[in-house]
Amino acid sequence: MNNILEVKDLCKTYVVNKRQNNVLRNVSFSVAEGEMVAIMGPSGSGKSTLLYTVSGMDRVTSGEVRFTGQDLSALPSDRLAELRLDHMGFIFQQMYMLRNLSVLDNIILPAIRSEKDKSSRADKRRRGLDLMNKLGINELADNDINEVSGGQLQRACIARSMINSPEMIFADEPTGALNRTSSEEVTDELCRLNSEGTTVMLVTHDSHVAAKCDRVLFIVDGNIKEEYNLGKYGGASTLRERERKLNDWLMDMGW
Amino acid sequence: MFLRILKKDIRRKKTMNVILLLFVILSAMFAASSVNNIITVVGGTDYFFEQAGMADYYFITIDGKNGDTLSPKLEAEPAVSGFRREGVLYTNAEKITVDGKKAMEFSNSSILLMSVDGIKINYFDKNNDALTEVPEGSFYMSGSAPENSGIKIGDKLDFSLGDVTVSLEYRGRIKDALLGSDFMGNARVLLNSKDYAKFYDDPSTEGYRGSVFYVDTNDTKAVEEAVTDDVSIAFDGSHSVIKMTYVLEVITTGMLLVVSVALILISFVILRFTIGFTITEEFREIGVMKAIGIKNRHIRALYLVKYLGIAIIGAVLGYFVSIPFGNLLLESASKSMYLGNDSNVLIGSLSCAAIVGIIMLFCWGCTRKIKKLSPIDAVRNGQTGERFKKRSFMNLGKSKLPATGFLAVNDVVSAPKQYSIMTVVFTLCLLLVMVFANIANTLGGSDKMLFLLGNTKSDLYYSSKDAMDLLGGVRTIEEHCSGIEKELADLGMPAKVHIEGQYKVPVEFGGTRQNITALWSADTKCSDYVYERGTAPQNENEFAATTLICDKFGFDIGDKAKITVNGVTKEYLLTAVFQSMNQLGQVIRLHEDAPLADVTPGTTFPAQIDFDDHPDAKTIEERKEFLKDHWDTDKVQNVTEFVKESTNSADAIAAVKNLVLIISVMIIIMIVVLMERSFIAKEKAELALMKALGIKDRYIIGQHTFRFVIVAAVSGLLSAALCLPLTKLVADPIFGMMGASEGIGYELNVPEIFALYPAIILAAVIAAARITAILTKAVKASDAANIE
Q1: Chain B interface residues facing chain A, Cβ-Cβ under 8 Å?
Q2: Model confidence pLDDT, tens digit, residues B180-215
Q3: Total domain count for chain A?
Q4: Residues of A in contact with B380 (CB under 8 A)
Q5: What is the reported pTM?
Q6: Looking at the domain assignment, is residue A244 inside a domain?
Q7: What are the sequence ranges of the domains in chain B?
Q8: d(CA B667, CA B267)
């Protein structure tokens, strides 16, 4: 299987008040097409920075990030924006949406903005409604974002991330602000998308969520300390079994 | 701790605080200078009159060969406690030359020459010193004509009258309380008695003699009635009428007061928005302060101290800037008036203190919002969970608008309050410019103004060098017009020529008898003029009167008044009411058959030329230029030039308009920068999200710019709808003071009002918004992870 994402010797340094903060230090890994990868690690270890850097939201200080073979560090910001719009999807911990748009309008905005997608606005709207239908939130289409629950809003964010049929979804603690039931629904949805062929990379603190992923990267002090391969979820081992194995491994990592 | 929070706030919101400070400075500067100026100019008239030793009632007479006929009547009138008479000689600008060419452009009809030994009031030089002597071979002059024509102190000018020509050196401008205002139709030249005698003693100047009377009385009505039969009176007016002639000086400062009020209002709007925005932005800090037990009033004090600081610094700086600015504005008024300025410091300080007080009261009201914020806001990111109000009624999926346009429109309709504040400010700025432009355009050549000046529309207007002969009785109007007609016919451009004259006629009704100025021409029909109501006089024994004259005498259409015309008194029927700015609206119009042909007019308008072949505008312009060369004068004008020169204030108001336009553009740019910066700060999360989703910077900048374009467009439409009603509201009282008591029709220059100014404002808005929106680039997609 081809690698969709290849990261080599990635470094990210922030300078705050003339003090250098090396958040990522020579990180190297790759993600294969159709894989579902979780990034775990203690607070401040650089998980989110890694996610934003490899997804082209932030520039690398040094090293190489290749997404579908393209070196992100060599791309101008407009090209990076196009890449994010047409080939990547994003889900954040906080359910960020534009306040002045309805739930459906928020979902279809990336499709309307896409220069690649030449379909009519009505088609895009229909596609947005289909996605909402799949995620069980179709009745919220015309609602204001203040009128829906956190779980519903996060599912709407997933729908938005899917509207342009991206090759890969990046999720930063997508269940971090949700209760157990909502969290379960959102994770299942990501698994479903992954089973349909979309690559997923997510940052999480929750081993229950991570247990549904194929592989877990454990990051400490800006370095991938070790990775744990769980294999495809839905195989012979039950979720409880995967979670137990993962927790054991995490304990070994000092989690 | 408060100081630390304050310091942090000032550093963090540097641009907003600086812009706010600028608004306060501008408000304080305008308030201090214009309040001060208006008090100085309005009070200054009384002060000037007192210093000059003016009287209660004034006459200017054309004595000619008949000599002074008014003095015996004044002596005989018991209501007159005393009077002073200055002997003068009438001339005009055509007779003042340098190397044979006209030395100065002078819009007014006559210039009064007089000896410094014959002065009966005080005249002042530029240093406000009373003028008691004029060296032989030199002269002083009132009004701005020498200065406007580039004449400098020391320049030699040739004065010709009759057969006498005397070369005199210009020594400077005098402040003349009676004739010194721009609104008065005459200027005065003070000469050494020996130079004056050279003119006066020559028999050829006998027809140009006249007098100026300063009458002390407690009963002006009795004085008016006592002299009604005296045909030598060219002008008469009470103290209040003369005071009114300084209206233009008052109007200019008054208009700046209007600008300053608008600016103060705009400052308040900006302040209101900034405070509201700051408090909303700082819900977390305020919530935390409340959570740890800091009382509302202490939190409120934190903001009040900051705004008090800005208000005081702004007011102090504004006060100091107002001193040179106020002097600059007063410069033109102080050239013609002796102004006392004792109240400068006190009034300026009080105005600035008032600005600080009003701003603080306003802040007090705005910071009430602090009470509503609770500790929960700090915990829940300002969301209380109770807000279920739908923000927008628009639908992106169903809209035909491009995404950038949709998002901008949607943002505007989703936050109507925020954008309506901006709309109000932009509209106010545009309206200010439009109102001044309408007034300047109306005064600067409107046909509507022509009728208010007492004239009909003609191809050309010509003030001949010999027009003074008409007032001296040397020639009749008919003879004068025939001469011009013959000359034009010889030049191959036959035309009808007529002259409007002003005649003093005694009018009596209901026990009131007064000398009133009658407008009359034998060669125009009364029906050629515009009337407010009634029908134009059809017969010799009919007349029309202005609203002010109707009010003065208490008559109305259908009433009959006794009018003495050419020595014959009979009853005339009032058939129509009209408006006029002649004699501040105190005129009547007599029928063309009235027997005035042989009567010497008190004043005449320029000769009006109507070519027989009805040429087009281009040919009229060509003929105008030809006649200027032929007659060696600039006083051949088309209708626009004639009206502009007659009103004599269009340029001053146009200058104020340009100043207001510059200020408005500056205000709008500051507001756009302030608002856009605050939008960027407020929408950082959304900006980061859009970028994370892959929306390009140029679309985001476009969306932000387009919001302001929408506001500017709505403001343009609102201003277009409101500009005429507001012009009437503002300018009608001003024109009312000049005599047009029932308001006038304003000249609306459609391309200028509806295209040029909105386009200028729009360009400023686009430039400011686009440049400021570039700051959105500073928000990175990865900031989506860091925003709380």
Answers
A1: 383, 387-392, 395-399, 403, 407, 410-411, 414-415, 685-686, 688-699, 780-782, 784-785, 787
A2: 877 776 789 999 999 999 999 998 888 889 999 999
A3: 1
A4: none
A5: 0.74
A6: yes
A7: 1-56+218-388, 66-71+85-212, 403-446+646-788, 460-637
A8: 9
